[in-house]
Amino acid sequence: MAEIAVLGGGCFWCLEAVYRQMRGITSVVPGYAGGTVLHPTYQQVCSGQTGHAEVVQLEWDHAVLNCRQILDCFFTLHDPTTLNRQGHDVGSQYRSVIFYTSPQQRDIAQETISSITNSNLWGAKPVTEVLPLDTFWPAEPEHHDYYAKHPYAGYCQAVITPKVTKARQALGDMMLRAGE
Fold it and tell me: Which of 95, 96, 97, 145 lies at 20 to 30 Å from 87 by C-alpha?
């Protein structure tokens, strides 16, 4: 049985690159959610004027992964304590946000955030929003599988590769091995 969630934690290229390498993930689509403009473009979202966040829509096999594992990966990949910012990416389009698709996802997201807060994992309280998903807009085709298509681009080397490496170290067996 498959489940869908939509997550925003900075640039969607970073999240997509890691989740594509995670066991049990059956689909990863970069896109936009949480804004007011219909059919937003990358340029519009980057302007910060549409209210959208850069997100990934994930579909996974519930026999392999559960929602908590998806969120544990999510909170490993980005700093949920910085409002509207991830590294040098600044603006509401880079906010930390979970768009849930069921009451169960909402509850798991809130429990996960409480656990992170109580453990002081990041040294500060998460600012991650937990919102119902209204509409997901897929990004333009050139943003799909960006890291795999441009592994030697400067942004990929400086930002995405370290996140992939961190995920592999932190998540171990949850990540696919080369050639799988």
Answer: 145
d(CA 30, CA 12): 6
Give the CB-side neighbour count of residue 130, counting CA atoms within 13 A.
15
Residues 55-87: pLDDT tens digits?
999 999 989 999 999 999 999 889 999 999 988
Please state, in angstroms and rounded to a whole number, the distance separating the CA atoms of residues 41 and 46. 9
> Among the options 11, 14, 73, 156, which is catalytic?
11
pLDDT digit string (tens) for 101-148? Answer: 999 999 999 999 999 999 988 889 999 999 999 999 999 999 999 999
| Residue 46 among the catalytic residues | no
Q: Structure pTM?
A: 0.94
Task: Tell me which residue of 80, 33, 77 sits closest to 53, measured CA to CA.
Answer: 33
For residue 149, CA distances in Å to 6, 144, 145, 155, 158 come to: 23, 9, 6, 13, 16
- At residue 76, φ and ψ (nearest 5 deg) are -80, -30
